[in-house]
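Reopening this one. Same input as before:
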Amino acid sequence: MKSTLRLASGTFLTVIMLAPLAALLGAESAAKPKASAKAKAAAAPQRAPTLANVAYGSHERQVLDFYKAESARPTPLLFYIHGGGWVAGDKRTVPQLDKYLAAGISVVSINYRFTTQAQAAGVKPPVEWPLRDAARALQFVRSKAGEWNIDKKRIAASGGSAGACSSLWLAFHDDLADPKSEDPVARESTRLFCAAVVGAQTTLDPQQMKEWTPNSRYGGHAFGFMPDPKETKTRDTQFARFLAAREEILPWIKQYSPYEHVTADDPPIYLYYSAPPALGQEQKDPTHTANFGVKLQEKCKSVGVPCELVYPGAPDVNHPTVFDYLVDRLKSPEEKS
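Same output, byte for byte:
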């Protein structure tokens, strides 16, 4: 079993790669004619939330939107975490939102504090804020299950890039609930029914990243290796320093790297990538390479955790998209839970 982490400041992480991430999300969705950036912005959000900007904390970014699927019975829930490298992004757009609601699956989309904000506030490591915010938001949603007609047992996390990494951290981490807390939200579970993600970074260990993909450049900002938190372009400029400092910050890496938390009691996982893997070779997009997925699938298989890996030409694909996987899992008969 994994140990429960208790951090004093309740902080989180964020990483950005907007153009590659947009390509990933576009590939995962059903093929559609390309629209201009202005048209896409005007189209988001797809519909008004049932409840908008619900606060789950005191910071301006600790808010979420809730979209309620109409149902006489408690519905499964998609818990969506946006991408943006933990340094940018917003909860406004959820891929396939209308289709999830039509399938009887309610949706929550969260904002969270960025690593850049954490770094400016002196939080160490900065990744604590985005990840702990995701956990707190999940607990808050569970505390609203009766009011929002949600099935607490059927909550799936999803997201792209940094949102995918956050989703996997939640999926693999031991329950962060504190049964003895005076705060009823803190007593709620952080465990998931499943997770289905796009372009996930499955490790934050620079040594693993370098071995899997030699031209890796991502992740240093999660641990404070970012020269100017006010300038997101400096995010991926310190990988060499990050790698050189690995032994010193290894306890942090083990706390916040999803790969480190995989154990046999974890929920099923679905991983989607837009290009095939090439382990040990440089990648066009090393931040979202399927190499991450190959190595996580190996780890999951070694302990018996179901992990479906999808990329162009991948074997054993049962679900071509995240949507297909989540509907199949979340709407499966009770005996398959």
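So the earlier flakiness isn't reproducible anymore. For the record, Confidence is low (pLDDT under 50) at residues 2-23, 26-35.
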